[in-house]
């Protein structure tokens, strides 16, 4: 065997051995796999309210936040700031909140984005407003109104 044939054989063998050791997925350049993960956000591990997720990448603003809980009634306004994409944050809440038994009531977009969620006895309003290159996310949580329907004084004719 000539010197160049041996060199080629050793190079090929080392490439095959490297691929076997590292695994083929390391060399994968599948754009659909990258784009599937690029558009979704993960929830943070530490949450003030365990059933209201917050996307990773947003920092809590404790000086602008408060929460109160007593006898099963929870009230709070939690503020966060970050560079997250607003469309991804909207999709995050549309996907995550139903996992915590929240029902989407509506979404209002007018410069700010407002997502209204409710469940049996609570409401949660999530607001996103742009602030420079950041967004300010506000989570407002409180009891659901228990207004009884009004009865008409006399039948409508």
Question: What does this protein look like?
Answer:
With 157 residues, the protein is α+β, with helices and mostly antiparallel strands. It has a domain at 40-143: TATA-Binding Protein. Helix content is 25%, strand content 34%. It has helices at 3-22, 31-38, 86-96, and strands at 59-60, 66-70, 73-82, 103-110, 112-119, 122-131, 134-143. Strands 1, 2, 3, 4, 5, 6 and 7 form a seven-stranded antiparallel β-sheet that branches. The longest helix has 20 residues, at 3-22. It starts with a helix and ends in a 14-residue tail after the last strand. Residues 4-37 have low confidence and may be disordered.
What is the overall pLDDT average?
78
Could you name the CATH topology of the domain at 40-143? TATA-Binding Protein
CATH structural class of the domain at 40-143: Alpha Beta
Report the sheet with the most strands, covering strand number, pairing sense and barrel closure: 7 strands, antiparallel
Radius of gyration: 26 Å
Q: Can you tell me the residue ranges where pLDDT is under 50 for at least 5 consecutive residues?
A: 4-37
Number of helical segments? 3
Helix content: 10-25%
End-to-end separation in angstroms reads 107 Å
Element order, helices and strands? Answer: HHEEEHEEEE
Number of strands: 7
Which second-level CATH architecture of the domain at 40-143 applies?
Answer: 2-Layer Sandwich
Instruction: Tell the overall outline.
Output: globular
Oligomer: single chain
Structural classification = alpha+beta
């Amino acid at each position: 065997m000539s010197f160049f044939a041996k060199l080629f054989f050793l190079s090929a063998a080392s490439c095959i051995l490297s691929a076997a050791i590292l695994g083929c997925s390391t060399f994968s350049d599948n754009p659909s796999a990258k784009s599937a993960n690029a558009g979704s956000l993960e929830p943070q591990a530490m949450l003030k309210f365990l059933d209201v997720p917050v996307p990773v990448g947003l920092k809590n603003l404790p000086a602008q936040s408060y929460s109160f809980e007593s006898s099963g009634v929870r009230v709070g306004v939690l503020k966060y700031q970050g560079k997250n994409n607003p469309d991804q944050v909207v999709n995050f809440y549309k996907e995550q909140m139903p996992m915590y038994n929240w029902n989407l009531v509506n979404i209002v977009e007018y410069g700010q984005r407002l997502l209204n969620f409710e469940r049996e006895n609570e409401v949660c309003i999530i607001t996103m407003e742009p602030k420079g290159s950041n967004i300010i996310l506000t989570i407002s949580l409180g009891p659901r109104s228990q207004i009884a329907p009004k009865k008409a004084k006399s039948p409508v004719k």
